[in-house]
């Protein structure tokens, strides 16, 4: 991100809640928001839940259901293989209970990051949208840190990205925590250096009008420059979140 003098500050929890509670969605964007929710987010919920479960170190419900389906003694080798893949001991077949929906990074937070960074493309790194055929090139470069060379799967890279951000260390995901960490994922440059609300959160609402960092590659290096008249074409993560909450698709707490 371009270096400039700091003129703003990161929002406080109360400020995040106030903006989220009082913002008005652009009525012309509602159909577009619902299209993303209904055709991209909800259909992939189970996959995002599975990634969340891996982040918090639990056997996800899909794996558990698969293990329960094994009925024959000769299937014990298959069970051991699945358990080993989950980092569990090979000599035990105790099946951990699926992680509760309230524990760990919410599945819809992963979905929102997937939209902003990858436009819901499962062939890209959740880190920054680079191709899974190689390590990341843009910031942070050289990821994921796993025990094999490229190519990578979306899920393993996503788990690595979320742990890189420290999401596995956060237990209480309320509105300000969600919004702060969504903004942190992209960077606090809008608030710190431009003293404005980030389109990463608020695009598609009355809180955001214009201004955008645009990333370009020059002399083999990536750089971001701010263009005050540029308008983000993406919907903000807080905007989609609010619409999902309004429709009763998710429940989130405010404090």
Provide a count of the helices: 11
Mean pLDDT: 84
Which shape, going by the Cα principal axes? globular
**Beta fraction:** 5-15%
Question: Which runs of at least 5 residues are low in confidence (pLDDT < 50)?
Answer: 60-76, 86-100
Q: Note the gap between the termini.
A: 32 Å
3D architecture notes:
With 255 residues, the chain is mainly alpha-helical. It has two domains: 13-54 and 102-120 and 156-246, no CATH class; 59-98, no CATH class. The chain has helices at residues 13-22, 30-41, 45-55, 61-69, 76-85, 107-118, 154-164, 175-186, 189-194, 199-202, 237-246, and strands at 212-218, 221-227. Helix 1 (13-22) crosses helix 8 (175-186), helix 2 crosses helix 11 (237-246) and helix 3 packs across helix 7. It is globular, with a radius of gyration of 20 Å.
List the main descriptive attributes of the protein structure presented here.
mainly alpha, 2 domains, globular, 255 residues
Helix-strand layout with pairing:
Layout: H1 13-22, H2 30-41, H3 45-55, H4 61-69, H5 76-85, H6 107-118, H7 154-164, H8 175-186, H9 189-194, H10 199-202, E1 212-218, E2 221-227, H11 237-246
Antiparallel strand pairs: 1-2
Helix pairs in contact: 1-8, 2-11, 3-6, 3-7
């Amino acid at each position: 991100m371009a270096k400039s003098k700091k003129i703003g500050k990161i929002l406080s929890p109360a400020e995040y809640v106030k903006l989220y509670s009082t913002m008005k969605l652009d009525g012309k964007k509602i159909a577009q928001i619902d299209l993303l929710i209904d055709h991209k987010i909800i259909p992939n919920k189970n996959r995002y839940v599975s990634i969340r479960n891996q982040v918090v170190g639990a056997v996800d419900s899909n794996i558990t259901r698969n293990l329960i389906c094994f009925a024959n003694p000769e299937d014990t080798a298959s069970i051991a293989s699945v358990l080993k893949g989950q980092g569990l001991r090979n000599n035990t077949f105790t099946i951990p209970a699926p992680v509760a929906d309230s524990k760990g990074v919410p599945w819809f937070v992963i979905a929102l990051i997937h939209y902003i960074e990858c436009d819901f493309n499962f062939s890209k790194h959740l880190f920054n949208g680079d191709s899974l055929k190689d390590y990341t090139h843009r910031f942070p470069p050289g990821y994921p840190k796993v025990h094999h060379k490229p190519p990578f799967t979306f899920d393993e890279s996503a788990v690595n990205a979320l742990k890189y951000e420290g999401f596995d260390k956060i237990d209480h995901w309320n509105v300000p925590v969600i919004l702060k960490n969504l903004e942190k994922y992209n960077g606090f440059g809008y608030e710190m250096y431009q003293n404005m609300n980030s389109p990463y959160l608020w695009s598609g609402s009355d809180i955001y009008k214009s201004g955008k960092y645009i990333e370009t590659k020059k002399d083999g290096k990536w750089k971001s420059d701010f263009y005050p008249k540029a308008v983000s074409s993406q919907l903000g993560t807080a905007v989609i979140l609010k619409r999902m909450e309004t429709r009763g698709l998710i429940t989130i707490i405010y404090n």
